[in-house]
Amino acid sequence: MNTTRQQGWVAFATGLLFAIGLGVGGMTQPAKVVGFLDFFGRWDPSLMFVMGGALSVHALVWRLVRHKPTPKLSTQWFVPTRRDLDRKLLGGAAIFGVGWGLGGYCPGPGITAIASGAVEAVVFVVAMLAGTRAVIAYERRDALRKAAELSAAETAVSPSPAPVKHH
Amino acid sequence: MSHWIEWSRALAGGVLIGASTALFLAFNGRIAGISGIVGGLVSIVKGDTYWRAMFVAGLVVGGLALALLAPWTMGASVASLPVVALAGALVGVGTRLGNGCTSGHGVCGVARLSPRSIAATIVFISTGAIAVLVRRALEGGSA
């Protein structure tokens, strides 16, 4: 089996395990998610245990593997290294949080809940994909516009032929 | 007492999620951030689609297993369809701009003590709490 296929099966197995974890942890119950975010009402702390359990295991394994030259099935690590905070990150997180609080779904549970046949989950995921698509389209247009401006600026500063003198 | 059972289940679910993201990291070398994985299927890059589709397929098959074997794990929606649509759009826009969601930032990033992920997690839990608070106020405390 080639590496791409092996990576695919790892992705499938971990996706499946992720969904089971969501179900066991209560993340596929929007009411529980909203209960967790309801700090000033009847707060339900159980999602704190989900997050605590998940990040403890992840942190432990990260410590074990982080100094290995490569992951098992790839020639390189794809782990983000940026550490700076910018408005895009914080603004995006703020917008995401509002959506999470309103619907009680974040991306993983939304996709997993589609299998339950709930119309709301399907609508949530379709709207989510549309939102992501809109940002990607905007960013592409923005990048094209900037590239065009840059090349226009380069043309403007490039040396123009010396004016012909008339006597 | 029943709280302890609930919290133990939550912890067990968390451990399964952590095992999933940790295996994905150790084998594929990637962050199991659901919004990022799905986002890469919205704008397709050649040669970078198969594992993403397989991960999403795993999520859906896992969801089917839950729906068939443990249907009580699938809770009903707390919001009407228009609100769910608005919520979905905000989640889609926000996770793309903010480079991640509960899994990528909240689990994988916080576990690596990434300052970006810690900040993002604090922000989205805060605005999520505000959204719940505002909704409850608008609905007269029934939510």
Could you give the topology of this structure?
The complex is a heterodimer of chains A (167) and B (143).
Chain A lengths: L2 H23 L4 H8 L8 H20 L21 H17 L3 H8 L4 H39 L10
Helix pairs in contact in A: 2-4, 5-6
Chain B lengths: L1 H27 L5 H9 L7 H20 L11 H17 L4 H10 L3 H24 L5
Helix pairs in contact in B: 2-3, 5-6
Tell me about this structure.
The complex is a heterodimer of chains A (167) and B (143). Chain A is mainly alpha-helical and 167 residues long. Chain A contains 6 helices and no strands. The longest helix of chain A is centred in the last third of the chain and has 39 residues. Chain A has one domain. With 143 residues, chain B is mainly α. Chain B has one domain. Helices cover 75% and strands 0% of the residues of chain B. Chain B is globular. Classes of the chains: A mainly alpha (167), B mainly alpha (143).
Sheet-strand content of chain A, in percent, reads under 5%
- Cα shape of chain A: extended
Sheet of most strands of chain A: none
H and E string of chain B: HHHHHH
How much of the residues of chain B is beta strand, in percent?
under 5%
Mean pLDDT of chain A: 93
Radius of gyration of chain B: 17 Å
The mean pLDDT of chain B is 94
> Structural class, judged by helices and strands of chain A?
mainly alpha
Number of domains of chain B: 1
| Number of helical regions of chain B | 6
Oligomer: heterodimer
What percent of residues of chain A adopt helix (DSSP H or I)? Answer: 55-70%
Q: What general form of chain B does the structure show?
A: globular
What Rg of chain A do the Cα atoms give? Answer: 24 Å
Low-pLDDT sequence parts of chain B: none
The total number of structural domains of chain A is 1
Record field, number of beta strands of chain B: 0
The end-to-end distance of chain A, rounded to whole angstroms, is 80 Å
Helix content of chain B: over 70%
Low-confidence stretches of chain A: none
